[in-house]
Write a structure and sequence with these properties.
The protein folds into two domains: about 100 residues, no CATH class; about 210 residues, von Willebrand factor, type A domain (Rossmann fold). Helix content is about 40%, strand content about 25%. It is built from eleven helices and 13 strands.
Length: about 350
């Protein structure tokens, strides 16, 4: 397998047509300047050793050397072997609520940030398990397909915000349905963790929880927030300008719906935990998830890549050295070599 580690360096290839254009302009300028001193044919006789072809050849060699250096910078690599990796684990999908109500600050710094911190801690404790992330508000979207790439999982978690789902709401049932379908035909043991404040705006969440259970998927829920609720802040850039209000001008209080989340976890044969200001409850759920029997996961991947940039650097050096030994005057022995003359 062949790849480039830093493909953005190929943008430097745009310099080549620019250099070619400059060469053409230089040759035109040079010819016009010499034309001031007389007819071109006469001037050529005064410079019998000058070779336009040699100048063009030197330019082509220089361009090839620059191109080789750019390819070297792009980091060409080859995969040395295809390796099978066997692990034992379960398939885990995280469904994270990113609606505006998750910005409430009854859990510091806010519900969403605390949930993201909890997911990162969960990822740090994974060993051989596969994880995926679904975000939802008014609609559900796959943020990260199921994978064993924990670094990617952390990166995608860090990028989550309330702006990534344009439709507001809390479509818990849509998130559970999407998560259940994301496992595909996997025969591994599966679990779904829903992290939300529980303010569901649909009515089929329990039906989706039951449908997931029929697929042998255990369902866990984490309630973000406090039962007494908190106002939803409004920001202009990074500055808070107030709180969301309803049509009557009253401040909207976002309250945790523990009853619904308890029912969802009950139907899904899992566990419900409420996050507090001191803990998210994720450890309790993870301890329970760790009890799920883990099955063997086999993956194929290129486990090792070797750098090949040195070949292109060597080619560039050879071309640059070759350029030093090519002069712009004509080669005398070639001038004497005239095979078609008698």
């Amino acid at each position: 397998m062949f790849r480039f580690a830093h493909i953005y360096y190929f943008y430097l290839l745009a310099l080549i047509p620019v250099l070619a254009g400059l060469l053409i302009l230089f040759l035109i300028w040079k010819k016009k300047t010499l034309a001031k001193y007389g007819e071109w044919n006469v001037i050529r006789q005064l410079m019998p050793d000058y070779s336009i072809g040699k100048s063009i050849l030197k330019f082509i060699i220089l361009i090839l050397a620059i191109s080789s250096l750019i390819v070297a910078l792009a980091g060409p690599q080859t995969g040395s072997r295809l390796e099978k990796v066997k692990r034992k684990g379960i398939d885990l999908m995280i469904c994270l609520d990113v609606s505006n109500s998750m910005m409430a600050q009854d859990i510091k710094p806010n519900r969403l940030e605390r949930a993201k911190q909890a997911i990162v801690r969960l990822i740090d404790n994974l060993e051989g398990d596969r994880i995926g992330i679904i975000v939802f508000a008014g609609k559900a979207y796959t943020q990260l397909p199921i994978t064993t790439d924990y670094a990617a999982a952390k990166m995608f978690t860090a990028s989550i915000s309330t702006n990534i789902v344009p439709t507001q709401g809390t479509a818990i049932s849509a998130a559970i349905e999407m998560a259940a379908n994301s496992f595909g035909e996997s025969k591994h043991n599966k679990a779904i963790v829903v992290i939300t404040d529980g303010e569901d705006h649909e009515g089929s969440v329990l039906e989706q929880a039951d449908a997931a259970l029929k697929k042998n998927i255990t369902l866990y829920t984490i309630g973000m927030g406090l039962p007494e609720g908190a106002p939803i802040p409004v920001f202009s850039g990074d500055i808070q300008t107030g709180y969301r209000k309803d049509r009557d001008g009253q401040t909207i209080m976002s309250k945790l719906d523990e009853t619904l989340l308890q029912k969802v976890a009950g139907v899904g044969k899992g566990m419900y935990v409420r996050a507090t200001t001191s803990e998210t409850g994720l450890k309790k759920i993870f301890d329970d998830i760790s009890k799920i029997q883990k099955s063997e996961i086999e993956e194929k991947q290129f486990s090792d890549y070797e750098n090949r940039f040195q070949y292109f650097v060597a080619l560039a050096l050879f071309l640059l050295i070759l350029d030093l030994f090519i002069f712009e005057r004509k080669t005398k022995w070639l001038q004497r070599f005239k095979p078609f003359e008698k």
